[in-house]
Amino acid sequence: MIRDKSLFVRRHEVVSLDILASFRRYRIHSSCCDIEVGEGTKRLIDLLAEYEGKRGEEIIPLLAERLDQSEDLVEKTLDLLIRYGLVVFSEEEKHDSEGEYYRNRMETFWWRWRLLDTERHGGFLRGLTFLFSWWVAIPVVFLAIGLLGWLYVEFFSHGGGGFEWRYYSFWDYLLVFYVGTQLKLLWHEIGHAAAMKKYNVPSPDGIGVGFYYFLFVAYTDTHESWNLPRSRRMVVSVAGFYFELMVVVLFFGVLFLTRSAAMRDYLLLFPFTVLSIFNPFLKMDGYWFFSDLLGVTNLQTKLRRWWSFWWGRLFAREFSKGENPFADYPRWIEWAVMVYGVFFVGFMLFFFGGFLFKIWLPVALSWNEMLFEPAKQLIGGHLAGGEMVDQLNRWLRYAGIFVGGVMFFVGWGVRLPIKILQSAKINREESST
User: Fold this and answer.
1) Rounded mean pLDDT of 237-265?
2) Of 11, 261, 334, 425, whose CB neighbour count within 10 A is largest?
3) Residue 208: which of 117, 130, 270, 133 has the closest Cα?
4) pTM given for the model
């Protein structure tokens, strides 16, 4: 079909990705796609721009000769680029959507609502960039860690009896654990947005909330950080956690002023909340940091392709053909991803299995109830206000049964199998080129 039509390259941007592969990888960004390609595909696109306007039957042999590839492979790659909208058939399509760019969306992030336009309020965020200076960051990190360490030593050594803690009421716990958590999460997302402004990277979707799988989460649009060097991408990834440490220091001030047992318990559980947010298996802060640390973009997509590659090698199944996505990376990265894959499968089985047995898991995760009991045993069962927190959890459980059940069974009970099949088809076609 493409041999009978004139071919043009849609207006796009090209950014060289900072990764650890031995051959360069590029981000191709246009009004219709946002994809990662290798050196060969980029060169094909560059050459096609020289010949654009000619018919496919003229261009394909020229590209095959210049790239030293077969005409079938060139045609197959062009077909894929046409699917992505990067190669078009008219001059008008080449220049459409001027100034607009395609936005990749995580399929598992299926609803979102923007709360803060970070481009419109960029002045406020730029005013916070001084917080990333070493003379601010080092004291904050050491002070927060030191205070948390002191609290644990105090609690373990004296069972919390070194101070006269004040127990107010159930509403004290509700205020600290609910309102305090929401304020901390908002400041967390502002940290990511401020890091984006520090490096002059746009954040079109701003700060908002949405549903990731069946969890209600807050988010910041950091997608354009892919254009940054790895070290700066890692700063963007940990910026939220760093801003949370500032809140920890502030909360310790409140603790010393009020001697609130609720605030004490909240701070005792803070390290466990970090573990829940900074895990590398869900696409949250820990995942992006781990991906940048390895120097591998689209880590979980490449992991699926790696599984498909080895399944094909071992069992020679037709649907699993493809190349090793880590062939251009150092050997240790492939081994690291293999270990990551084992733990990833275990975590996801636990994640979804826990949901099936606990429909209210979205709320339980948000409030770290899964970590609350282990923390309670670790500290020796001395957490204050146990009955108050149990009452709060019962309320959240009832709300979670309704919210979690509806969101999962209606939202993903139908969509998830379809998305898996679509993803498998796209991955197979992309890996073959």
Assistant:
1) 92
2) 261
3) 117
4) 0.78
